[in-house]
Amino acid sequence: MDNTDPVLTIDVISPHTNESVGKLPDMKVDEVGGLIDKAHTAFLKWKETTISDRAEIVMKAIDSLEHSSEEIAHLLEQEIAKDIEAGKKEIERSVEYTKFTVSATKDLNGEVFFGDSSKGLKKGQKTGYSSRVPLGVILAITPFNYPVNLAITKIVPALMMGNSLVLKPPVQGGLASTKLFECFIKSGVPEGVLTLVTGRSSGIGDYLVTHPKISMIAFTGSTVTGHHIAEVSKGKVPLLMEMGGKDSSIVLSDADIELALDEIVKGAFTFCGQRCTATKRVFVESEIAQEFIERIVEKSKTFKVGPLISSVQKDLILAMIEDAKANGAREVLGGQAQGNIVLPTILTGVNENAKLFYEEQFGPVLPITIIQNVDQAVNWINTSRYGLQSSVFTRDIDKAFSIAEKIDTGTVQINAACGRYPDNFPFVGVRDSGIGLPQGTKDTLLAMSRQKLTVINKKV
Ligand code: G3P
Fold it and tell me: Which of 241, 247, 275 has most ligand 1 atoms within 8 Å of its beta carbon, as the pocket-test mutant?
């Protein structure tokens, strides 16, 4: 290429103004292929380093991330409209997660196997010991809503286990991801051990997920994209995928209503409901339904929301509201948009025909359905295509446990809204909410490595 040619770029569009707030390189497959080759070469050296050396570099990177907190939080505010405090919190929890993961890596041990349980083998004839070895180059694809946290929870376990990692961030969130990447590079992560690849998914997405030097894909994002990746990668590499959710809260008549209201309002409207774990549906028992609805409307009126990620997303959300109303739902709050902002919206009487009842809404809209008994709600939750989290509000702890046992989601929260935090807890989605391996601290370390057995054969 002629040196005077401009580098191809993509504009990062602000949700506030629909205008560009920065640019990212628009990489093409040739460049990406070269970077993956380098990542593979770097892996061959990195896997030979000690856990303690890796820990030192990762902890330096995390220090640097902490120091860049203010700057990154401002980028998040510009490119995804996350408020500054929430941005800082995202960085804080990522630092905490890293400390847990580094320590969990240091605690990982193998097992010893003795062959003499098998018929014909003598004592000491065969002794095996297992260890964890890295997989190779891991591809991490992250979404716009947590560009830092959902990158860190992939980068740190991958590097600690001796893998190299190629990070493909979203376009909106790509500026903060670039800063995060720089924190690792300036802290001594060798070239190619961590690689940033930016570009349009339509151009490089399939190339990345089918590249023969990619040994694992860790993805967080929509169910549609997750299914597409699973299909084109044809089961050739392990997948760790967290996808959509339709997280529901059940409010029983004996619940602490104040607590349920606080949790559900935050759960539904924080970051405009653009969280996989946002509360996306409420089932309330008929005995308290009227009081609950009146009070949740009152409480939600003053909840401050920012703009949705794009005008396209705003239109999708407004269309879902209209579809619910056309199917008999009553809008008891909100429904209006100002720019890309959709005000907190609550609909009652949302029935099974409405998309809002069964599809994931990534927006500040809460459908409420009155139930006559809890089994009805449990059945709706268990027959949903999604199965990330759910929650139950009741003062009767025995009842809470027996309902939790019946619910088939990755996590059931008792007396709290759905949510992943703390990030060292296992995070699992069933049905269309996840594919493959679970996430956590130890869980992700195991997912990003494999067991290797060495057998000592002795003459006896
Ligand atoms: O890891 C961030 C995301 O997966 C969910 O986090 O706290 O919004 O449930 P949270």
Answer: 275
Helix, strand, coil shares of the chain, percent, nearest 5, are 45, 20, 35
Q: Is 440 left (phi over 0), alpha (psi -120 to 50) or beta?
A: left
What is the arrangement of strands in the sheet containing 126-134, beginning at the earlier edge strand? Answer: 112-114, 126-134, 449-457
Round the average pLDDT of the chain to a whole number and report it.
97
Cβ pair 308, 15 in contact under 8 A? yes
Secondary structure letter of residue 361 according to DSSP: P
Report helix, strand or coil for 26. Answer: coil
Q: Confirm whether 242 is a catalytic residue.
A: yes
Kindly report, residue by residue over 333-382, the tens digit of the pLDDT.
999 999 999 999 999 999 999 999 999 999 999 999 999 999 999 999 99
The pocket around ligand 1, CB under 6 angstroms, is made up of 146, 149-150, 275-277, 419-421
Atom of ligand 1 at shortest distance to CA of 146?
A: 2
The pLDDT tens digits of the residues spanning 144-170 come to 999 999 999 999 999 999 999 999 999
Domain 248-422 has CATH 3.40.309.10: yes
Atom of ligand 1 nearest to the CA of 90: 2
Give, to the nearest 10 degrees, the angle between helix 174-186 and helix 69-80: 160
Question: What are the residue boundaries of the structural domains of the chain, listed by start?
Answer: 9-243+434-455, 248-422
Mapped onto helix, strand or coil, the DSSP state of residue 384 is coil
Query: How far is the CA of 359 from the CAs of 21, 114, 356, in angstroms?
Result: 32, 52, 6
Whether residue 132 contacts residue 450, with contact meaning beta carbons closer than 8 Å, is answered with: yes
Distance 146 CA to ligand 1 centre (A): 7
Rounded to whole angstroms, how far apart are CA atoms 249 and 284? 8
DSSP string, 389-453: EEEEE-S-HHHHHHHHHH--SSEEEESS-----STTS-B--EETTEEES-BSSHHHHHHTEEEEE
Q: Which CATH architecture has domain 9-243+434-455?
A: 3-Layer(aba) Sandwich (3.40)
| Short-list 32, 12, 34, CA closest to 23 | 12
